[in-house]
Amino acid sequence: MKKILVASSALVAVGFAGAAQASEPISLSVGGYMEQWVGAASEENRFEAKNKIQSDTEIHFSGSTTLDNGIEVGASIELEGNNSNVRNSADDGSSGATNIDESWMYVSGGFGEVRLGAEDGAAADMGITAPSVGPVGANDGDLGNWVTTNAIPDTVPAGGDSKRVTYYTPTLGGFKAGISYADDDSSENSNTVATGDSRVSGGLEYRGDFDGVSVGVSLVGESFQEGEWYGVGATVGFGNFTVGASVSETDGEFGAGEPAAGANKLEDTTDFDIGVSYAMDAATVSLTYAYGENDGSATVSGVDEINTVHAGLDYTLGAGVSWRSSIFWFDDQGENPGAADDNEGYGVVTGFRLGF
Fold first, then answer.
1. What are the beta bridge partners of residue 61?
2. What is the distance between the alpha carbons of residues 64 and 72, in angstroms, rounded to a whole number?
3. What pLDDT is attached to residue 161?
4. Cβ distance 112 to 168 under 8 Å?
5. Low-confidence ranges of the chain (pLDDT < 70)
6. pTM for the complete prediction?
7. Domain span holding position 149
8. Domains in the chain, number
């Protein structure tokens, strides 16, 4: 891994060589989004109702410049607008929250792109999943915002916004590769990965068009502490339709280390999704099925399986304004009756997304 970091640093150094100054100073632009959702869900009576109003807001600051030698240098800063979504500044569960979500800089040119800072990493950025629109996707981990369940399908369960170095190759013949490394060293001004262990993630993707048919394929994975996860996804677009599917396997010890004394050993998780979307003028609709299987946890034994079906709508009302809705059903079947892994129900969520 040190060789990779040295090679990335060398690429950046070569790119900067001979550049006296930027042709234009960096000026920040402002963007972001606001999402406001209202919904209702029906589930087993023994579970306390979840919040039926959800919000997510981010303000994005970005800027870039092109040096005299053609190398582009830029930065991206994402400010959270909802305290419930704030990333902890220590990334280890301790106090000291901050309103900054992601903050990173990049250097790009003919050699590819190098990123430095707190961001999702290569696996999260390159993972392809089944198409799904609407505020509650069957395959993106948002189901737990509305109902109680232990198993939530997520075929790209990448780690969070740890500070890391990421390198993306140039796209050649439709192929592109990326690799990220988050260190375990800490300092007063350096966030580390949770529990202080290094994390490596990577991905390989292909995207191409053939006589009106678009194809996307990804192979991604991540290693963290005692475990790892890996997955593959693909989509095919033709006419107004897009179909796709993805599957991933996660070692139960990914990000958790060895279980405490006396606890059950963590086992693997399997996630799968398949879906189709149809775009017509200002509206896009989708239908997605997702399945998740969790073979035990540190406190609960047995197999936990969940099936979810989601129908979504994304209707553009104007520039940057869309109305989005979801109808979902889930059935979580575990081997511990009365627990959170034995629940079923359905829900309806609607609201607006403002992009700016």
1. 30, 77
2. 7
3. 78
4. yes
5. 1-23, 48-51, 83-98, 184-197, 255-267, 296-303, 334-341
6. 0.82
7. 2-355
8. 1
